[in-house]
Amino acid sequence: MRVTNNMLINNMVYNLNQNLRTLEKLQYQKATGKKFRVPSDDPIGASKSLKFHTDISKLEQYQRNAEDAMSWMTDTESALGEIGEVLKRAYELTIDVANGTKKAPEDLQKVKEEIDQLREHLIQIGNTTYAGRHIFSGYKTDQPLLNEDGTYNIDLIMKKDENDADKKAEIFEYNVGVSETVKVNTLGGKVFGKIDLDEEGKPIFVEEPDYTSDIDEKKMPYLIAVFDALSDELDSGTNPDIIQNSIKRLQDSHEQVLAVRSEVGAKMNRLEMTEKKIGAQINNVNELLSYNEDVDMAEISMQIAMAENVYISSLMTGAKIIQPTLVQFLT
């Protein structure tokens, strides 16, 4: 085969361009710190990177869910703590009234006024919101749990009905991992309970308050009924047994609040561990992603130096093969 000057020139230009393209690619990698910029540079590596980025996005969403759930439960725990303080103060006042020392009417009136204020504060706590959502109202987060008069404002489904698939407890579940959820909200019925009313609208106190059955807005919250009965007795003074009974009712209510608070605390502890686990997983995937697509700066600097030498050598070799006068003639 006859080798012509055109063939020599074309091959030389082609090889020079290839060397220059290699040098440009290495310089891009060093400038960006990435091994590839388009999938064709490394199809397998690009595919892995896409998967790693997807995994990181999922983990970051789980992390946001866990943080939102933690904030919700932090507000819930704070509200339960306030309810506990209200019950504690009411208990102290009731014990003081029932200690056997006869109180003057004006003293009892002062106690009644404080009990009434504590009752109002209970209603406010029952309507606590997080990010504009009522935390004790189940799925009806746009509506307060209690009316201004202390009655229930909404219906609440407290437990799942195995015979009715559509009847599910109004519990929010947040995804915080693959097939991993956490129940976030606490239903108001578990804290305030419910009590039946007689024909005159008076509460019918029983030995064991109901904190588990479904709530309808016709029912009276047990906690509010306890404060109402105590306030009425302080005003009338007709039945001292109500004062004694109120002591036990306040104790029982406080124990129920503590039980719910401890349940929320257990969920918060679990969420803290989940957040740490998600953070560790994100770091691990980021390390894999970095290993897959980030360049080693020391190595890439050496490769650039070698590519530059190759390019310069090819220029010098081409200049010897193609005489300058001929090149000038062709150009």
What is the strand and helix layout of this fold?
Blueprint lengths: L4 H28 L10 H55 L7 H22 L2 E2 L2 E2 L38 E5 L2 E4 L4 H5 L29 H15 L4 H53 L3 H25 L2 H7 L1
Helix pairs in contact: 1-7, 2-3, 2-6, 3-5, 5-6
Task: From the structure above, extract its key features.
two-stranded antiparallel sheet; mainly alpha; f41 fragment of flagellin, N-terminal domain; 63% helix; 331 residues; single chain
Describe this structure in words.
It is a single chain. By secondary structure, this protein is mainly alpha-helical. The protein has a single domain (52-286), classed as Up-down Bundle (f41 fragment of flagellin, N-terminal domain). Helices cover 63% and strands 4% of the residues. It contains eight helices and four strands. It has helices at residues 5-32, 43-97, 105-126, 188-192, 222-236, 241-293, 297-321, 324-330, and strands spanning 129-130, 133-134, 173-177, 180-183. The strands form two sheets. It has a two-stranded antiparallel ribbon. A hairpin with a 2-residue loop joins strand 3 (173-177) and strand 4.
